[in-house]
Amino acid sequence: MERHEKRDVARADPRPWPLVPRDLGKEDIPDQRLPRPYNIKASPVGAGGKLYIATEQGDVVVVRMGETYEVLATNTLTDQSFIATPAVAGGSLYLRSREALYCIRQ
User: CB–CB of 51/44 below 8 Å?
Assistant: First the structure.
């Protein structure tokens, strides 16, 4: 579980990625889901106010961390499958698929 400001990112099952308030006494936790159902084995990684979620379907979903849920991007690497947790180092995002290692930077 990753902590960001007043939110925890919890993975209850492979489909939804709810952003759960730390004050679990609240009744108004909104249902927040990724754009489609995914198989996810890798842990999400947070950097620069964004949460990167690598999926077995070859998508890397980028979600804004904070009070407001927003999917910023869905990046697809065709014919790839990610089961390793992405790594962030030196301003770069490293993704290891079953067949290749990718370095993504601005």
Answer: yes
